[in-house]
Amino acid sequence: MTQPQTQATRPTVTYTQGDIVLVRDAERFWLGKNGHTFVGRVERSWPHADTRKVLYDLTELSGNRTRAGIDPDYMRLLPPADAMHDIDTAPLSEPDTGALTPAAVAWLRQHLAQDTAALPAQR
After folding, report:
1. Which of 1, 32, 43, 84 has its CA 20 to 30 A from that of 111?
2. SS3 for 87-114, per residue?
């Protein structure tokens, strides 16, 4: 007896200019080729002339390369909260900076350097 197939449904997402997304090149993925997934920034959206499906033009962040006509079915939004999670949850009360991720340390160094420049000179 065959089992009925279930299909996962995902909500329709509309991406806006500047959104950071994870993109999978489906053809490269299914052929087992490298470089099938990348992070991009949405530059614009436009309707396909024949199908009227909305497609996206992106800038690939790792190589600053433009990718045109990306199908949103193969895109996922990378929320800022996820990107900043390590900084938001960094154990700042611990003296061991090794417990912080490199991104959190870099962010803290950058902001501490900016803040100390604004402090008045010590007497």
Report:
1. 43
2. HHCCCCCCCCHHHCCHHHHHHHHHHHHH
C-alpha pair distances (Å), 82 with each of 20, 85, 87, 89:
11, 5, 10, 11
Note whether 25 and 66 are same-domain residues: yes
State the DSSP code for 82: H
CB atoms within 10 A of CB 56: 22
* Position with higher pLDDT, 109 vs 35: 35
Indicate if 39 and 86 belong to the same structural domain: no
In a domain, 6, yes or no: no
Tokens of 8: 């996962």
pLDDT at 32: 96
Q: Is the pLDDT of residue 84 over 80?
A: yes
